[in-house]
Amino acid sequence: xxxxxxxxxxxxxxxxxxxxxxxxxxxxxxxxxxxxxxxxxxxxxxxxxxxxxxxxxxxxxxxxxxxxxxxxxxxxxxxxxxxxxxxxxxxxxxxxxxxxxxxxxxxxxxxxxxxxxxxxxxxxxxxxxxxxxxxxxxxxxxxxxxxxxxxxxxxxxxxxxxxxxxxxxxxxxxxxxxxxxxxxxxxxxxxxxxxxxxxxxxxxxxxxxxxxxxxxxxxxxxxxxxxxxxxxxxxxxxxxxxxxxxxxxxxxxxxxxxxxxxxxxxxxxxxxxxxxxxxxxxxxxxxxxxxxxxxxxxxxxxxxxxxxxxxxxxxxxxxxxxxxxxxxxxxxxxxxxxxxxxxxxxxxxxxxxxxxxxxxxxxxxxxxxxxxxxxxxxxxxxxxxxxxxxxxxxxxxxxxxxxxxxxxxxxxxxxxxxxxxxxxxxxxxxxxxxxxxxxxxxxxxxxxxxxxxxxxxxxxxxxxxxxxxxxxxxxxxxxxxxxxxxxxxxxxxxxxxxxxxxxxxxxxxxxxxxxxxxxxxxxxxxxxxxxxxxxxxxxxxxxxxxxxx
Length: 549
Prior knowledge:
The protein has 549 residues and is mainly α. Helix content is 68%, strand content 0%. α13 (241-253) packs antiparallel against α14, α22 packs antiparallel against α23 and α25 packs antiparallel against α26. The longest helix has 15 residues, at 44-58.
């Protein structure tokens, strides 16, 4: 019996990993338990008392301990056998990483999509292990999957690379394919190509070949994509719907829509049944050409296919093209069909529907779906708040947007400037620069980070209104934050206007300070020197002194 238990533990911990090792490796179940190897000769009570301490020491977490405590109290009165205890242990252990003990931090809760998107995860993982915590392959898989789903691909790659480096498991072709896909997204197809070339022949399977093809397609490398596809055929790989979908996506992205249709025809001819994505790509190829009849024809064909289960994603694609064609009634009908097929806990699906309802002008639909999402998903991430805020700003319902921002501030989500920035942009685009400035100042008072782009946008707004003093102060703040965003450059028109104003009315120190600050973001041109020269002349300073400066 003990041997069978050992085998079951090994397979449970192994998952799809070849070695099944944890970063902090557990001790394996011993083949003998002292002189009590023949457990069947002992009483049920004695077996429980012998097995329980060993299980507590080696494998059980707090939730399992609680379960065993309850079982011990029942012991013989409920006739619970040692075999039942072991079976209950493994039933709990198989899903233990999905459940949290209240107030107990888990690795998933620490670096999940609810956390800080700018966090460097490798030190966090190292720290977790150094503190004596276990790192399970299944939990890391779940983290990578969730990070990919939330499009935090840099962090997903970091976790995947950490797994490989620390020897949590020996990568199979599946893990290599995931890492290759992430490398392509983060570093580009050349880096993905390099990773693929370093793989052993054993790991160069249809999965890793397919991941590299996807990297080529993503960056519209038509020649490389088709050449790689030919290699896959020569290798004798069975082409899946995913492979054909990649080629159809490639032709869509480069505008060769006729080849999309030809690829789908070849796909059917080769006995490969199109899946939902195949039909969505085909629908999209008609939609981008504003061919509504063609799009509807493909949709009807899709609905008649026995292997297809219609999903919310397809109907949101259709609704999007109806909205672009100003066919609101048809768009609303498609949105109803999409909602009817939405998984209650699919936050991404809610985000798509909320955005589309906002584009149709349906405020009621936006708020209704948001309430449903909060109820179904229990916890909403920053991306969810951003989507709803953008929808309310589109609908120009700033009162509701302000309430939502307050709700976000009271949530446990990490601070992310992108959330309040939606409202800042909305205020600015609607000419309410005072509210935009007030929101930025409020964030600064709370010691929260802002960006030079946001202050620069407000400065441009004040310039349009002719309020040069406020434009100048906002631009100065923007320039002072430049070090945190080296890609930002101030609007030349705003800078010229401020220099002109300072040259006419500013003191020598004001002009000099502003010109000095400009050196950190752009070269000081003749307009800057001209403004400084005028300030010197107005201040009665010697021209020679100005030249010396």
